[in-house]
Amino acid sequence: PQVSRGFSYSVWNPFISYDNGRTLPVLIWTSWLYQLNSESAQRLALFLDIAVPAFIFYAVGYLLASERFPGRAPRYLAALSATAVGIVNPFVTMRINNANYIFNLGVLAAAFYLAHRALRAPTVRKVFPFAAILGVLVAFDTIIPQTLVESYIVAVVALAVGTVLSAKPLVSLQRSLVFLGVTTGLAVGLLAYWIAPYAAGLLSRYG
């Protein structure tokens, strides 16, 4: 598509074109439901776009509370509170028609928790699963460009604060670098289907 005067990208790029968000079932995991000419299917897609981030908030709240409170009641209360703050609030309600934005909030919550857990990993090797999960989430949700930036901001802030407060800052710094490196590598790898031809188009034009 033509995006600026005298310049045209060689392939569809989710970071540039917003109009293709619901016509190309590439990264939005429920987009195939939106393509069906069925009101029930579209309602199911909207429900999933809200239910999945709600579950992420619930899980993050429960898991964080389980590190502090031994009983189940405080954990469930923290989980429900996290879900209410993250999903059931006026700010989100006003954007109920933008399911992608709501899903982004779940990704941000997951980014915070995964970075937090990476710092607490007993070994560097144990950091890889947390980084892999975030890499997959970011790759699935990069139909909204700011998700990538916001996820990294949340993760970097969580890692930086955790490193500063850590009793072993050098060990925490090592885990932080591994976490960010694996997350970036996996996300770029999963998005290579458009990054590679896009980069090739730029090189052929300006190289």
List keywords for this structure.
207 residues; mainly alpha; 2 strands; disordered N terminus
Explain how this protein is built.
By secondary structure, the chain is an all-alpha fold. It has 9 helices and 2 strands, in the order E-E-H-H-H-H-H-H-H-H-H. Strands 1-2 form a two-stranded antiparallel ribbon. The chain starts with a strand and ends with a helix.
Which structural class is indicated by helix and strand composition?
mainly alpha
Instruction: Calculate the mean pLDDT score and round it.
Output: 78
Sheet bearing the most strands, described? 2 strands, antiparallel
> Could you say which overall geometry the principal axes of the C-alpha atoms support?
flat
Helical residue percent band? over 70%
Q: Report the uncertain regions.
A: 1-27
> β content, as a range?
under 5%
Span between N and C termini? 21 Å
Number of DSSP strand runs:
2
Trace the largest sheet across and list its strands: 1-2
What is the H/E string? EEHHHHHHHHH
Could you tell me the radius of gyration in angstroms?
19 Å
Number of helices: 9
